[in-house]
Each structure stands twice: as C-alpha cells, then as structure tokens.
Amino acid sequence: MGAFNMQKAVWTSFGIALILVNIIAEVGEYYTGIHIHMLLRIALIVGVTVGTSVLAGATILVSKMDEEVSLSGNVKDTLGADRKK
Hints:
The protein is mainly α. The chain has helices at residues 3-32, 38-64, 75-78.
C-alpha cells in the first residue's frame, strides 16, 4: 500500500460521499419538505472525505508496521562519531 492506494481511497470516498449525501438530501426533501442547503451538503461531503482519509492513512501506517526492520540491537553500532570513548 503506497501513496497510490491512499489517493485511490480518498477519491473513492469523495465520490461515494458526493453521491450518497445528495441522494439522502433529495430523498429527505421529497418526504419531509425540508431543504438542505448546498453549503451544508458540501460541508458534509468534505467532512466524510477527510474522516475516511484519516482512517485510510492510519490503516496504511498500521499495515506498514509489519515491514519495519529493527536495528542491529547493539547500541554501540548505532552511535555516531560523536560518541565519547
């Protein structure tokens, strides 16, 4: 999972949020007569997109933890030239 999958996740969540928020708003207006202003719809779409991008990023980071390799395990090997003798 790299940047391409993160980009794909954000665009997918944006598209799904765009469609679902507008469908829910139109169906709600049809049955209740209450109009949801376009600015509120845009805010909901952006909120859902940001939320899913945070969750997708966290999922990618957690999946990358398995690929992390540890250092040699010897502290003397990991110190630089400024080490006092």
